């Protein structure tokens, strides 16, 4: 790793990402001219309507897509740098859609895929220490009874716990989570959010970025928020300054009332008209 300990966790400067739009027969912007600065130890939520560019931002941070313009630094170095200098070696990811290869593996094997290859796991070339660490992390998130269960048979909430344990196997300095609470029932969601807050308290140097659609899914430990609309940043900064009625109205295009109680957020929409034909909500 080339970056120093004091370098920011994430630095986007004027980042534009484009993709080919076959229908239009031209490139189109997925995010445009994004500046974003994340210090180490901060806990960010990224919020915005469908298609705003939230997943694209995470994909850019992990070099899944390359910027057309602008620069990205993760933990003080360019993501995707060859060899051990690649900062992505210290980045854990929880994806909205878990990897397909995982379906047939046991939960413990899925956790082990973070440091080891699946061939090594099949050939039992994984050390006893690694196995014990994976089992310990699984147990840490209430998944000890899942060890031998086929990942494909696990419920959504169980899979989230397995993915969290998997992401922590690399002892990440940065954890990226794409819609981690989607599909969880109420107790499952609360357990997951509490796990996130506990993690933040236990590992002060860990930085997290979680994409979410709903303010109710924001962990109480969140310190900062990034609001996106139509590819661009509406507001970014400390969570209390960013999550305001005005910013959310600008972000979602409807009047929203937001409140905070015991560290958690709740929102309701005013004067909104729902159109059954399109499924969209519009201001009255
Ligand atoms: N590879 C691609 N090629 C063309 N368009 C793409 C590609 N990837 C994403 N997009 C488009 O870019 C826009 C932003 O996508 P992105 O997945 O980042 O949005 P999002 O905010 O995460 O949305 P959602 O809340 O629905 O998950 C969307 O309109 C999407 O259809």
Automatic annotation (TrEMBL):
Enzyme Commission (EC) number: 3.6.3.-
InterPro entries (UniProt xref): AAA+_ATPase, ABC_transporter-like_ATP-bd, P-loop_NTPase
Top EC group: hydrolase
Highest taxon in the source lineage: Bacteria
A GO MF term: ATP hydrolysis activity
Sequence ranges assigned to domain ABC transporter in this UniProt record: 10-255
SMART domains in alphabetical order: AAA
N-terminal signal peptide: none
Keywords (A to Z) from UniProt: ATP-binding, Hydrolase, Nucleotide-binding
Protein name, UniProt field: ABC transporter ATP-binding protein YlmA
Organism the protein comes from: Capillimicrobium parvum
Phylogenetic classification of the source organism: Bacteria, Bacillati, Actinomycetota, Thermoleophilia, Solirubrobacterales
